[in-house]
Design a protein that fits this description.
The structure holds three protein chains of three kinds. By secondary structure, chain A is of the alpha+beta class. Chain A is built from nine helices and five strands. Helix content of chain A is 46%, strand content 14%. In chain A, strands 1, 2, 3, 4 and 5 form a five-stranded antiparallel beta sheet that branches. Helix content of chain B is 50%, strand content 17%. In chain B, the strands form three sheets. Chain B has a five-stranded antiparallel beta sheet, with helices on both faces. A three-stranded antiparallel beta sheet of chain B has the order 6-8-9. A two-stranded antiparallel sheet of chain B has the order 7-10. Chain B starts with a helix and ends in a 5-residue tail after the last helix. Chain B is α+β, with helices and mostly antiparallel strands. Chain B is globular, with a radius of gyration of 24 Å. Chain C has two domains: 147 residues, ATPase, nucleotide binding domain (Nucleotidyltransferase, domain 5, 2-Layer Sandwich), CATH 3.30.420.40; 166 residues, 2-Layer Sandwich (Nucleotidyltransferase, domain 5). By secondary structure, chain C is α/β, with parallel strands linked by helices. In chain C, helix 4 packs across helix 5. Classes of the chains: A alpha+beta, B alpha+beta, C alpha/beta. Chain C: Pfam families: TsaD. Chain C: Its EC number is 2.3.1.234. Chain C: Keywords: Acyltransferase, Cytoplasm, Metal-binding, Nucleus, Transferase, tRNA processing. Chain C: One of its GO terms (biological process) is tRNA threonylcarbamoyladenosine modification.
């Protein structure tokens, strides 16, 4: 159901993605996160093309945290920031973070290998139905994503949307 | 919590949802931020990866990264260079490489996807282009011994000319154009194979016809020295370039100048 | 046994050397040195060479203990180089060849450097970095040609160094390059300068115009010393040369480097190239100032190779040329 990937560069760290549909308490979740009671990144899944997008953001976040060069205050806000094609932090949260009226949520955690309790703790907080993470592609809004990431028509022809998105995420620091 | 603390938390809350107090952050975020930890990560990873080649500039590895077959390009320190020069040059080239790739992709030119860049160790993590052959191998194996014109090769030359025109119109100078740096990726459908440009290690952005001319000159020298008796084929490439680029006449003029420059320069000493 | 006399005067050095089957019997030379801040002009250089050439010729024969009858062939620099000095020397070579009744051989100056380097160092098939006041090329032998893999797209590295020396009025005695090298040893602060490598080629006009403009400002503001500038300039231009040499080596799969030409005397350049070679497991070959700097014996050596492979230059073909590409010559003496 969920997807866990061990970061090759930082093998003590695993990234787990959990996707929930029919979420009824998005506002409560967001509030809890604001209060610091949820140790995860809560992401708007309509902005996601594929779980790889999250892994790219998470890998970069962990790396920057390790070298003390994060742009935001915490690992989880850094993951959200890394999803964005721009360097504007508040815009990143607005677009990629969840809003009160959302009915789906992608929950992302970074943890050490044996932390199943952490995962079940989070699952318990979400009032919704957990689904396969791969299902995120059914929730994606390609038009919105293309517009935000400024994917050009030529690029669409020669590449996939995922590739276009990931490439921009990885290179935005120098563009 | 102090008043100042509350203000900070509220500011962060206004920005997004992942807010914690410092104590809570320390308690639960799974990080051990020691210098040793962070500087060993990449060398350890590369130690287990497969070294594909060691060029003059960089080592190229193959590995799995985020579940994808990945090429890692590590620009290592050159011991003969002054350390300040080395760092500046290496950083600059890493940045230029990454910028050039994105510019090309935006223009619809196939180039490897960048997954991650580590600016401390100057490593670029790139999509591995699988199921491909270099244009170099293609030409070498397809070349007729009697140098008869080969329509397949001519079509290839035409496509290369087109793609380079597109690249130069984006003001991307590849800097190391050779037939080894162009891949033909077999497409899943039965269409024409995808022409992919790789190794943007010496690339940079420039609008100058002079730089584009030199870019073509570098390719010409590499092309003719690697593939003997292909002058006619290269001419086809240039013709295709000239026809496809909006700014080609100035570039071709500069190419001619650079070709002559080697012959006309007064050499003393 | 084949004895060849070689005449060299394409720039400000006039040298005449005699080689007998790979042995340097004599190699006298004179250098035309101009005051600090000045370069050497063709007509003045030719005048200098005219005044001294017969003396040098006499020295060459006496030091070798030979008479004109002992010579088998007269080689001279056909080009490339400065017009007037080349003509001066060619004239004497032609005259002497006719007087002595010996065949004439017009030699490419760059190939003279390469063949001398090969003789002295016994390098087998090296990637050659040829660097002087007038040339900057990376050369590798392939199929009867010394092919140019990389070169400067504007001025030679030696020219860049010489002109920088003029800007800050460094002495030209014994050579501006030598004095820059000595000053660089005392420099410590690295000043960032433009670095231009384009593919296998290099460009020095950018760094020269930058430093011509900025040098005096930097010195008078006390930002750095002249020694720091010398140091930084060397580190930068030599890094560029090592880089293109390495790229050519990687391309050719070569494990040997030979540095020839006047700038090749520079020990810092040799040191840097040595570090690069060591990292690759390659071998570095270099000669000392007797053979790095333009000299007559190198022309004699190239002439020896050419003569033995059956080449001769007829009188009507014995003109000189200011532009003469290294890859124009058919290297008939190698496989």
């Amino acid at each position: 159901m969920q997807l866990t990937h061990v970061l090759e560069l930082y093998p003590d760290h695993s990234v787990t993605q959990m996707l929930f549909k029919e979420v009824k308490n998005a506002a409560e979740l967001r509030q809890k996160a604001v209060e610091g009671k949820i140790y995860a990144a809560l992401i708007n899944p309509t902005m996601l093309v594929n779980p790889l997008q999250v892994l790219v953001a998470a890998n970069k976040a962990v790396h920057l945290q390790k070298i003390g060069k994060m742009k935001t205050r915490s690992l989880y806000s850094e993951i959200i920031f890394n999803l964005s094609p721009t360097n504007n932090i508040s815009e990143a949260f607005k677009r990629f973070g969840i809003s009160d009226g959302d009915d789906s949520v992608m929950v992302v955690l970074v943890h050490n290998k044996q932390e199943s309790k952490l995962l079940s703790d989070i699952t318990a907080l979400v009032d919704g139905r957990q689904v396969q993470v791969e299902d995120v592609s059914s929730l994606s809004d390609p038009a919105k994503i293309k517009k935000l990431y400024k994917v050009t028509p030529q690029e669409e022809k020669s590449s996939t949307l995922l590739d276009a998105v990931v490439c921009r995420m990885a290179t935005k620091d120098v563009m | 919590m102090s008043v100042r603390c509350i203000c900070v938390v509220m500011q962060l809350a206004a920005r997004g949802q992942c807010v914690k107090t410092a104590e809570e952050a320390n308690r639960t975020e799974p990080e051990v931020n020691t210098a040793k930890d962070s500087s060993m990560a990449l060398p350890e990873f590369l130690g287990k990866a497969e070294l594909l080649k060691q060029g003059a500039e960089a080592r190229v590895y193959r590995a799995q990264f985020l579940g994808k077959p990945t090429i890692v390009k590590e620009r290592f320190k050159k011991q003969y260079r002054h350390p300040v020069l080395d760092e500046k040059l290496t950083h600059r080239r890493t940045v230029q490489e990454v910028r050039s790739i994105l510019r090309c992709r935006r223009a619809g030119i196939s180039a490897p996807v960048v997954y991650f860049v580590d600016y401390t160790s100057h490593c670029i993590f790139l999509e591995e282009i699988t199921g491909s052959a270099t244009v170099r191998d293609h030409i070498t194996s397809a070349q007729q011994p009697d140098s008869c014109p080969d329509p397949q090769l001519e079509r290839l030359a035409q496509r290369v000319g087109q793609i380079l025109a597109k690249m130069h119109d984006e003001d991307v100078i590849h800097g190391d154009l050779t037939t080894s740096n162009m891949l033909l990726r077999l497409s899943p459908e039965d269409g024409e194979s995808d022409l992919v440009l790789i190794d943007f290690g010496l690339s940079y952005i420039s609008a100058l016809p002079e730089d584009k001319g030199v870019d073509l000159y570098v390719l010409e020298k590499a092309f003719l020295s690697t593939h003997p008796n292909t002058e006619a084929l290269f001419e086809k490439l240039l013709k295709s370039y000239a026809a496809s680029s909006k700014k080609s006449s100035a570039v071709i003029k500069k190419l001619d100048e650079v070709r002559l420059r080697g012959r006309k320069r007064s050499m003393v000493g | 046994m084949t004895v060849v006399i070689g005449f060299e005067g394409s720039a400000n050095k006039i040298g005449i050397g005699i080689i007998r089957d790979g042995e340097v019997l004599s190699n006298p030379r004179r250098t035309y040195i101009t005051p600090p801040g000045q370069g050497f002009l063709p007509s003045d250089t030719a005048r200098h060479h005219r005044a001294i050439i017969l003396t040098v010729l006499k020295e060459a024969l006496e030091q070798a203990g030979l008479k004109p009858a002992d010579i088998d062939c007269v080689a001279y620099t056909k080009g490339p180089g400065m017009g007037a000095p080349l003509v001066t020397v060619a004239l004497v070579a032609r005259t002497v060849a006719q007087l002595w009744g010996k065949p004439l051989l017009g030699v490419n100056h760059c190939i003279g450097h390469i063949e001398m380097g090969r003789l002295i160092t016994k390098a087998n098939n090296p990637t050659v970095l040829y660097v002087s006041g007038g040339n900057t090329q990376v050369i590798a032998y392939s199929e009867r040609r010394y092919r140019i893999f990389g070169e400067t797209i504007d001025i030679a590295v030696g020219n860049c160094l010489d002109r920088f020396a003029r800007v800050i009025k460094i002495s030209n005695d014994p050579s501006p390059g030598y004095n820059i090298e000595q000053m660089a040893k005392k420099g410590s602060q690295y000043v960032e300068l433009p670095y231009t490598v384009k593919g296998m080629d290099v460009s020095f006009s950018g760094i020269l115009s930058y430093i011509e403009e900025a040098a005096n400002k930097m010195l008078s503001s006390g930002q750095c010393t002249a020694e720091d500038l010398c140091f930084s300039l060397q580190e930068t231009v030599f890094s560029m040369l090592v880089e293109i040499t390495e790229r050519a080596m990687a391309h050719c799969g070569s494990q040997e480097v030979l540095i020839v030409g006047g700038v090749g005397c520079n020990l810092r350049l040799q040191e840097m190239m040595g570090v690069m070679c060591k990292e690759r497991g390659a071998k570095l070959f270099a000669t000392d100032e007797r053979f790095c700097i333009d000299n007559g014996a190198m022309i004699a050596q190239a002439g020896w190779e050419m003569f033995r492979s059956g080449q001769v230059t007829e009188l009507e073909d014995s003109w000189i040329t200011q532009r003469y590409r290294t890859d124009e010559v058919e290297v008939t003496w190698r496989n």
